[in-house]
Write a structure and sequence with these properties.
The protein is α/β, with parallel strands linked by helices. The protein contains 25 helices and 14 strands.
C-alpha cells in the first residue's frame, strides 16, 4: 500500500517523468486507472493514454495518428491541452546503454519538455514502463523510479478464484481452502502473467486442481527464478539431524523459528535480520543454510553476489533490485548469500568507477532497513576479504565461527553419514551404522578432519568394498583414514589466522560442552587441535 500511495504522490507532486521497471504492462495500466479514479480526487479529471512504438498513442483503444515516432509523441505531449497521464511502453530503447549511445535528439527533447510538464495549466505526467531499468545520465534528475510490486497473496487468490470460476470443466472439488492458500503462496514471486500461466498449467495437466498442483506451481516458479540467473531456488530434504555438531548455531536458529508469527508479535520481539556464518571450509556452513529452509519451513533462495557485481547478466544495480524484489515477494523467506566475500571483495576498490561500492552500500542499506520478513544467511570462507562495514553491529544479529569438528562433533558427523549410506544389509553385513564402538574409533582417529573429509572417509570405504564386490569391512575405514591428508595439515597457518580473527568477532558455532571436550580428546595436541576459534557461549 505504501508503494501505491507513493505513485499517487509522485503524480500529485507533478514529477515530470516516472519510471517503472516491469513486464506487467496491463497491471500497471489498471493500477494507474485505479489511482486516477479513486485516489486523485481533484476537480481535474485525467485521461490515460498509452503509447508504444508499434501502435503510436492510443486513447481508449483509439489510435491517434502521427504519434508513432519519439519526436511526434513528445511534441504531441507538449501541445496537449488536457490533463493526462501518458504511459510510454519500452521508451528505454531511445535511452542508449553502456555500449549503445542513446538517441540524443530524443533525450534533449525530453529535457525541453520538463518545464511544460511541471508548469503547464493542464496536469500532465509521463510514465515510462519498461522491462529494463535504463535511465540516461542527463535525465537522472528529472526521472523518479517507482517500484511496482509483484502481485501479493490477495491478488493471486483473486486471480485463482477467477480462473476456477471461468474454467468450469476443471475439477477443483478436492482443493481445500488450506491447499488453495498453499497453491497461491507457491506463486508468490511471479508476475501476474506468470502466475496465471502456472495455474493454467496446473489445470490442464489432468483436468483437476488439487494439492498435487502445488508442486507444479513451485516448479514453474523455480524456472522463472532460474531465468534471471542471479537467484537459485533451493529445494532440499535436509533437516536439522543432518548437521553433526554446531549445537550453538542450531540452537540459535531454532530459537528464532516463527519469529514472524502472530505469537512473536505479542512478545514484541524484533524480527531477526540474519546471521553471518564464517569458518573453515567443508565444516557445514552451506549445509546449515540448506537445512534452515526445512527447520523454518521457509523457501530458500541462493543469491550469487559475484554475478551481480560482475554485471554478466544486466547492469549491477538493476540486478540487485530485481533479486531483492523477488526475495521480498516470496517472503517470509531465507536469502542465502553464498561466499559473500567473493562478491564483496571488489567493494572497497575503486577500479570499477565506484559501482561495487554503490551496490555494496545499497545491499547494506537494504539489510539494515528491510521490513519484509527476509532472513539473510551469509556464508564466508575468507573473512579477510570482508569489508569492515559488513561486520558492524546491527547488520547481522550474530556472527558465527565454524571450526574443525570436536571429538563429539566428529562422532555425530560420522553417525549422520553412516546412517545415510549404510542401508543395504548385504553391503554392510558386519558393520552397523549405529555401532557406538565403531563411531568412537572413527572419531578418535580423525582428529583435525573437516566435515566433508569425514563424509569422504565413509564414501571411500564404500567405494573400495564396491570395487571388490564384497561387503564393507572395518579395514576399509582404517585405510580411508590413513590415506587422507586433512586440510588442517596443509592449511594450518590459514586456519590459525581465521581463529585469531574469530576470537574477537565471532561466536563459536559449537556448544561450550563440545568445545571443552576438544583438547581433552586430542592425541596430537598440537596447536591446530588444541586451540579453537570464536567466543564460547551457551546460546
Ligand atoms: P562449507 O562449510 O564449505 O559450506 P559444506 O556445508 O558445503 O561446507 O560441507 C560439505 C559437505 O560435507 C556437506 O554436504 C556434508 O555432507 C559434509 N559436512 C560438513 N560438515 C558437516 C556437519 N557438520 N555435519 C554433517 N555433514 C557435514
Amino acid at each position: 500500500m505504501e508503494n501505491q500511495d507513493k505513485l499517487t504522490s509522485f503524480i500529485k507532486a507533478r514529477f515530470p517523468y516516472i519510471y517503472i521497471e516491469s513486464f506487467e504492462e496491463d497491471r500497471i495500466v489498471k493500477h494507474i486507472e485505479n489511482i486516477v479514479n479513486n485516489q486523485l480526487k481533484s476537480k481535474v479529471t485525467r485521461e490515460i493514454l498509452v503509447w508504444s512504438q508499434s501502435s503510436g498513442l492510443k486513447n481508449k483503444n483509439k489510435a491517434i495518428t502521427n504519434t508513432k515516432s519519439p519526436a511526434q509523441i513528445l511534441e504531441f505531449i507538449k501541445k496537449y491541452e488536457q490533463s493526462a497521464i501518458f504511459i510510454l511502453l519500452d521508451f528505454h530503447v531511445y535511452f542508449g546503454e553502456k555500449h549503445r549511445p542513446g538517441d540524443n535528439e530524443t533525450i534533449r527533447q525530453l529535457r525541453d519538455l520538463v518545464p511544460y510538464l511541471k508548469r503547464s495549466e493542464a496536469r500532465k505526467t509521463v510514465v515510462f514502463v519498461s522491462p529494463e531499468l535504463n535511465i540516461p545520465q542527463t535525465l537522472e534528475k528529472d526521472i523518479v523510479i517507482y517500484d511496482f510490486n509483484l502481485p501479493n497473496l490477495e491478488q493471486i487468490k483473486d486471480s485463482l478464484n477467477r480462473m476456477i470460476s471461468v474454467n468450469s470443466r476443471v475439477d477443483s472439488s478436492d482443493l481445500t481452502e488450506e491447499d488453495k492458500d498453499k497453491l497461491c503462496k507457491a506463486a508468490l514471486g511471479l508476475t501476474m502473467q506468470e502466475t496465471e500461466n502456472a495455474f493454467a498449467l496446473a489445470m490442464v495437466n489432468d483436468g483437476k486442481l488439487n494439492a498435487k498442483d502445488i508442486k507444479v506451481v513451485l516448479e514453474e516458479k523455480m524456472q522463472v527464478i532460474r531465468k534471471n540467473g542471479l537467484l537459485e531456488y533451493i529445494q532440499t530434504d535436509l533437516n536439522i539431524n543432518d548437521i553433526g555438531g554446531l549445537d550453538n548455531l542450531k540452537k540459535w536458529l531454532l530459537k528464532r523459528n516463527n519469529s514472524w508469527s502472530e505469537r512473536a508479535k505479542k512478545y514484541c520481539i524484533p524480527s531477526p535480520k540474519g546471521v553471518l556464518v564464517t569458518g573453515i571450509p567443508g565444516c557445514g556452513k552451506s549445509l546449515t543454510a540448506k537445512a534452515m529452509s526445512a527447520i523454518w519451513n521457509l523457501p530458500l533462495l541462493r543469491l550469487d553476489l559475484g554475478k551481480i557485481f560482475s554485471g554478466i547478466v544486466g547492469s549491477s544495480e538493476e540486478n540487485l533490485r530485481k533479486a531483492i524484489k523477488t526475495v521480498e515477494a516470496v517472503s517470509p523467506s531465507i536469502l542465502w548469500v553464498d561466499e559473500i566475500e567473493k562478491g564483496l571483495s571488489g567493494a572497497t576498490s575503486s577500479n570499477d568507477g565506484g559501482v561495487s561500492t554503490r551496490i555494496f552500500g545499497a545491499f547494506l542499506t537494504w539489510m539494515q532497513e528491510k521490513t519484509a520478513p527476509v532472513f539473510v544467511i551469509a556464508t564466508a570462507n575468507n573473512i579477510s576479504k570482508l569489508p569492515p562495514e559488513l561486520l558492524r553491529k546491527g547488520r547481522f544479529d550474530e556472527i558465527f565461527f565454524v571450526d574443525l569438528p570436536t571429538f563429539n562433533e566428529r562422532k555425530e558427523i560420522f553417525s549422520v553419514h553412516l546412517k545415510r549410506r549404510l542401508k543395504d544389509e548385504e553391503v554392510t553385513k558386519d558393520i552397523k551404522p549405529d555401532d557406538e564402538n565403531l563411531i568412537k574409533y572413527l572419531a578418535e582417529h580423525t582428529e583435525g578432519f573437516i566435515g566433508s573429509e569425514i563424509e569422504q572417509v565413509v564414501i571411500t570405504a564404500l567405494c573400495d568394498a564396491f570395487f571388490e564386490n564384497r561387503p564393507l569391512k572395518f579395514e576399509d575405514f582404517v585405510k580411508a583414514i590413513e590415506n587422507t591428508v586433512p586440510l588442517s595439515k596443509t592449511q594450518k597457518e590459514q586456519i590459525l589466522a581465521l581463529r585469531e580473527w574469530a576470537n574477537i568477532r565471532a561466536v563459536s558455532a559449537s556448544s561450550k560442552e563440545n568445545t571443552e571436550n576438544y583438547a581433552n580428546n586430542s592425541d596430537l595436541n598440537n596447536d591446530i587441535t588444541s586451540s579453537r576459534g570464536g567466543r564460547r557461549l551457551d546460546i
